[in-house]
Amino acid sequence: MNKQHSNPLTTVYTLEYMPRSNIDYQKIILVTVGLVGIIALSAKAPNCVQFLRFLPNQKAKKRSYIDNIAIKSLITKGFIKITINTNGQKVVRLTNKGKEKLTEYKLSDLKINKPKRWDGKYRVIIFDIKEWKRGTRDKLRRWFEGLGLIKLQNSVWVYPYDCEEIIALLKANYHIGNEVLYMEVNKIENDHWLKKIFELN
């Protein structure tokens, strides 16, 4: 799947060149509805969105079946909803939950750029998220692990390269701006083990 990056939260996806294996149909539907805004359902197949025709080597009957399964699953998960427009036609829209999921998909494509030389500073991220937001806290930990951050202590993570932009996007996506603190520090005591993990000179 080709991507053109400008603003990380407005990533443009084109479906024509989607890989032929390991296709995430639910992701395709969310991305497509997110780009278009509203997708009209087919009059001939009222439970089916006819845009998976962009996928290579997909027969029409199989597309309809995949559409139905994927859309039903997305509705069950609360990511999309079907409504009636002013013309009396059924249309698919993203829910707020679906918009958050779409942002997660876009964030998952972001990477931290590693410079050729380390500037000698550590990036330390501290968060204090309320117990009733445990789900958000767990998601944040998984993001940090996936991005390659190392946990120093409970709720304290470290990384040697600039990652402020991605941390800011995560804070905005999960509405935790006041609960996460990003810092740059010049020294961490006994950091030889960190340098070994991050392969720093």
| Overall mean confidence score, pLDDT | 77
Secondary structure tally, helices: 6
Beta content comes to 15-25%
Q: Give the number of DSSP strands.
A: 9
**CATH fold type of the largest domain:** Arc Repressor Mutant, subunit A
Determine Rg (CA atoms, Å).
21 Å
Question: Features of this protein?
Answer:
alpha+beta, Arc Repressor Mutant, subunit A, Alpha-Beta Plaits, four-stranded antiparallel beta sheet, three-stranded antiparallel beta sheet, 9 strands, 36% helix, disordered N terminus
Summarize the structure.
This protein has 201 residues and is an alpha+beta fold.
What would you note in describing this structure?
- The strands form three sheets. Strands 7-8-6-9 form a four-stranded antiparallel β-sheet, with helices on one face. A three-stranded antiparallel β-sheet has the order 3-5-4.
- The protein is elongated.
- The chain has six helices and nine strands.
- The model is unreliable at 1-21 and 44-49 (pLDDT under 50).
- It has two domains: 2-108, Arc Repressor Mutant, subunit A (Orthogonal Bundle); 122-198, Alpha-Beta Plaits, CATH 3.30.70.
- The chain has helices spanning 25-36, 60-76, 96-108, 134-147, 164-173, 192-198; strands spanning 2-4, 12-14, 38-40, 80-84, 90-94, 122-127, 150-153, 156-159, 180-185.
- It is α+β, with helices and mostly antiparallel strands.
- The longest helix has 17 residues, at 60-76.
